[in-house]
Amino acid sequence: MRWLHAEWTKLRTLPSTWWLLASTVLLTVAVGAAAASSLTSGVCPSPDACHEDTVKLSLTGVWLGQATCLVLGVLSMGSEYGTGTVRTTLSAMPLRWRLLAAKAAALALLTAATGTVAITAALWTARLVLPVRGPTLRATIGSVLVLTLVALLGLALATLLRDTAAGITLGLGLLYVVPLLADLLGSPLWRHRLHRWTPMPAALSIQATRNLNHLPIAPWPGLGVLAAYAAGLLLAGGVAFRLRDA
Amino acid sequence: MTTPTLTPYRSRLHPARAGFGRLLHAEWTKFRTVRAWPVVLGVAVVAVVLICRLGASGSSTSGGGPQTFGPGGERVVDLFRFAHRPLTGDGSITVRVTGLKSADSRSIEPWAKAGIIVKQNLQEGSAYAAVMATPAHGIRMQWNFTHDTAGSASDVATAPHWLRLTRRGEHLTGYESADGRTWSKIKDVRLPGLPRTVQVGLLAGTPAHNNVHRAFGGTSETYGGGLVTGTYDHLALKGTSTATAWKSTDVGGPVPNGPTPQDAQPGRTNVSPSGTYTLTGRGDIAPAEDGPDMVQMSFQGVFVGILFMVALGTLFVTGEYKRGLIRTTFTATPARLKVLAAKTTVIAAVTFAAGLLATAVGFSLAQSVLRHNGFTPPEFPDLSLLQNPALRAVVGSAALLSLVAVLALGVAAVLRNSAGTIAVVVALVILPQILSFAFPLPAAQWLLRVTPAAAFAIQQGVTRYPQVDHNCLPESGCYPLSPWHGFAVLAAYAVAALLLAAWRLRRRDA
What we know:
The structure holds two protein chains of two kinds. Helices cover about 75% and strands about 0% of the residues of chain A. Chain A is globular, with a radius of gyration of 19 Å. Chain A is an all-alpha fold. Chain A has one domain. The longest helix of chain B has about 35 residues. At the A-B interface, helix 2, helix 4, helix 8 and helix 9 of A face helix 2, helix 3, helix 7 and helix 8 of B.
């Protein structure tokens, strides 16, 4: 408990944390609202005749909001390496696995709380612009979990690479570039595979509320793919953390 | 006895006036000797080449049936209803177009055509020159598929309009008139190799309707249908003709296996006793733009290269701030803007050189893979690396990588923080592309106009002609801006970042 408290204090007292969290909320809401208001009456004349998945559209902001969550996750470990604080930390709290667990817990709680605020606000804002219909509960909870898992992914990458710049670059590459390649790839087979097995397209299938049988991967297994990436990398990071000197 | 005084060593160079060459050398040494950076650059080159090649190996084509090629060798569409007579030697054709309207239940396409044409023969893809009325683009003179000149903005749906086409040797001149008495010239064009006997007559045609349905994660685009009726009177042919009657042909058609069943139906021609001609036809006379872009398909790796370039540009500045080296740098060279200029020059040159190597090799490998996968001439002509559009795309992609590094350097000098810089630049360059797949079309196209992602237009190899309506879908690799305009958007972002960086460097202590 004390370890968690220590990590919570570290996270809480950095101004960058609050900046990042504030921009997560802002970006998620702003992009969601922009996406929602870009719907013309031609595409969506009435809620019943709407071709677009309005729930998913109003949660588009998660695409951008996850970037700040990733940065937050990377910084929570990377900045310790950058400034050398990690050596002080490890002198005070020598149990590596417990330290990593405490860090992950503090980070997860904070991003989950912020994510809840961001997603709720995004849905509310979008509702002002367009009639959001459909079962929103899974999409809402799922999107919060996506943000949380992305932050943990960032933490794992920073632990593994011990460098902020490398962690963020690799993380953003995994989140953005791989799905982009998938979309531009000529081969439908590989496109399908990449959509199924890379963290972002798979995880964001949780936001879909219609045409569920056209998704490359079902909502919850899709989120599971991201969770598997985060857990796997966290495990690898933990092993490396345990075996290497700081 | 005097003690000899020793003057301490002083560099003869005034610190503030150190030559720019030395500064460049200093920055180059910094870049070269940080072990990770050249390694990252090397990894970037390998990654770009590999992914270009892999990306290409995922694409294949089985060849899309018979193709038509225009006089310039480009792929064309040449389908229309043609009421024609042969013309031997010089002569002219004059007609009054009294109407152009849709003959199916859909609204008329903006580039539907009714007018007069002089064509080499009745073969698809043969040379031609035509003067025509269109519903949304006024009177046009078009020839040999790729050329288009605007006449007046008259609309034949509201008032009839006179058109005339005169042949003298290889020269064809188009005229138009509102009343049939005062004529204005549209253009005089030369069709090299036009035979002595040509076919002249009336044309009617329309591009097919294009339906796009876009939703998250899937787009369907269907072409089909489209039928127009043009009405004409006061038809007059001057010159020597071996035939006395007008004969009607569907050039290039009817298409037995078209996208809609109506495509198999022949067009119709009606002549009333009072001399009114009514032609109903489908099809278009225009360059074909629906094929895959073989140039752009060869540059998938550039997206990955961007990540490395962002990291390099960022660390080249933030690395110094993190370790406090920036204070030493500014002590040695107090002129901050010179340092910024030297850093920019070095990073731009290094990333451009590496990028050029990567894109040239990647493009060549991708091309050979694509050839292997069925992208063969004549449908997909050979692209020489030293000729446009391949040259523009290869050099442009390298410049794109280089500009992204410069953008990152500028942002890094403003933010002085690796995490923030990398996140901001990646979000600016990569994210718009992803969002453009998800957003409704107008928002998606707007996004690809105003963000640095617009610069990817430099990789486009298909020429977009204004006389063809084209749905610019981001998921099929289309960017709304022309190659150089798109590139200028990224350049503007990079310049803005550098200016902001210069201002911040002078205003704020290191």
